[in-house]
Specification:
about 150 residues, alpha/beta
Length: about 150
């Protein structure tokens, strides 16, 4: 089963600490193909660094995030979707500061392999902060999609 991670990234630092965490967590989760759109304001070595770090099937490109001064996240995400390989059964999305945490030994391919064909997308808990008492703040976000449905941003 071919599963792509469609991600957009802005990485200002030469060693790309946030992007490294995201890419490493995506590999551990079982994503086999990477489509990464790199914001043109990123460090100049970002595309080469990410290609070497992923060490697998990937399609990396640079795009202009703010052509008119406003960020265009939807357009940037759509650019990654347009590059999905035809044989890709599922895709997920992430940003360069996301970390994909596994709560069990099951990987993304394990989870998706058990889905009935009628399921077109899956939502996961998204933890974005902790309050002053240490409680997790979060909500559900749809993160994995069946490619044959033809999702768009």
């Amino acid at each position: 089963m071919k599963i792509a991670l469609c991600a957009i990234a802005r990485s200002d630092k030469e060693d790309h600490p946030d992007l490294a965490l995201m890419l490493d967590s995506a590999k551990r989760a079982g994503f086999g193909h990477l489509i990464l759109g790199v914001d043109d304001r990123s460090h100049p070595n970002t595309v080469a660094w990410a290609t070497e770090r992923w060490d697998g099937s990937c399609d990396l490109f640079t795009f202009e995030m703010e052509a008119d001064g406003d960020p265009h996240f939807g357009r940037a995400r759509q650019l990654t979707l347009e590059r999905l390989p035809a044989d890709c059964e599922f895709w997920g999305w992430a940003d360069s500061d996301d970390v994909i945490e596994r709560k069990s030994e099951r990987t993304v391919p394990d989870i998706l392999g058990a889905l009935p064909p009628s399921v077109g997308a899956l939502a996961f808990n998204y933890h974005y902060a902790n309050d002053e008492y240490g409680n997790v703040k979060g909500h559900l976000k749809v993160r994995l999609f069946r490619s044959s449905i033809g999702w768009e941003w």
